[in-house]
Predict the structure.
Amino acid sequence: MKLDLMKLFEGCVRNYHTFNMTVHHGKHSFTMTEMEYFSRLDSLLGYHPFKLCSGGFKIMKRRVCTNDADFQRANIFQRKLEVWVAGELSTVGKIESFTADSVKMIDGSYYLRMNCKFFMV
């Protein structure tokens, strides 16, 4: 697989406006925002993003949510879910509630469990 790095970097530069940074932000704020951006980009591309923890970086494992226990665990521990619809990432967020047929996200959107794939991150 050949990867065009210039195209990738141009896309990153175009997306820097989403950082909402001003001259009043320090280097640390910019670095953390940049790391979060690349983490989201990695998850969109299907890679395992890295999570910053006290001892350095830790690989975040994605777990498929298939049964009620997985959704209950995500709800209780307020874990974020990636919702994939027709092979495309629809949203990343927390669960408000779920039933045997659907999942309601905290932003108010509903997803049918049979039409979507859910990954706990």
